[in-house]
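Reader question, answered in our methods column.
A reader sent in the components of a multi-part assembly and asked whether the whole thing could be modeled at once rather than chain by chain. We filled in our standard form and ran it. Here is what they sent:
COMPLEX SIZE: two components
ENTRIES:
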Amino acid sequence: MRRSGALKTWAVLLFFLTLKAAGNSWMAWGMKQVPERMSLDPSLYLHAMLNPFVALGIIALILSLLTRMALLSLADLSFVLPVTAIGYVVAVVIGKVWLHEAVSSQRWLGALLIFGGALLVGSTSRNTTTKADSE
Amino acid sequence: MKWLLVAVMVTATVLADLLQSHEMKQAGEQSVSAGGFARLLQTIARRRLLFLGVACNAVSFFTFMALVQSEPLSFAVPASASSFVLETVLAKFVLHEHIGARRTAGALAVLAGVVLVGG
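And here is the structure of the entire assembly that came back:
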């Protein structure tokens, strides 16, 4: 029971990270195709949403918000915060591999620290406020 | 002005996460299927504190957008990471989560990493 709960938590986490990475990438790609500079004028944002990549990005980011809420129903906030930071590592890797961005050694060190820290937190009990799942 | 934006962003983020964590634990385990998302939307509509948490998310998002318009990302990202420390401390004292040595060490490593990635 406890093992299946842990598997479900990691599956939901993976789904969240995928949605977040896809949403951010589509949004960034779409916004680059929008000619207007954003300001306080809401019509500019509505016009930007007509771009299919921006629209896809917004849908993915809304779903990622709902997925994170589902994750918070399964695990502690102090567990979710560090493990979802793996998204920063994913962003660095996507930037290097697909967008061919220059990544400094400081950024790689940061990504390594996030990954190590997330692994450390991931090895602790995911839910310490519900009796059945706590250590 | 930039510190006011940071203060609003951090406060909104902390409130959003504390409210969502508390409310989602009360609501029980959720799934991420199509039906699960529909039930989750109904839960948000039913629970006022959860709705407030989502509204705080929106405030945090737009404040972050405003911050990155006037300040470099290398300031905005580490500044937003300060909510991480506050939330972990409040998770212990407000949500009564058990935060042992391993979780503390991991959270500190992640915090240092976020500051380095954003810096």
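What stands out: The radius of gyration of chain A is 18 Å. The CA atoms of residues 105 and 111 of chain A lie 10 Å apart.
Send us your own complexes using the same form.
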